Amino acid sequence: MAPTPVEFVAAAKRSARRLEMRDGYMTSDPWYQAWQAGKFEEYAEPSAWPDLIREVTGRGVQVQRARVVSEPVSDYIRFEHATTAGIVAAGERVRWLPRPRAARLALPGTDCWIVDGDRVLFSHYTGDGEVAGRELVTDPDTARLCVDAFSAVWELGTDHEAYRV
Question: For the structural domain made of 5-162, what CATH number should be given?
Answer without folding.
Answer: 3.30.870.10
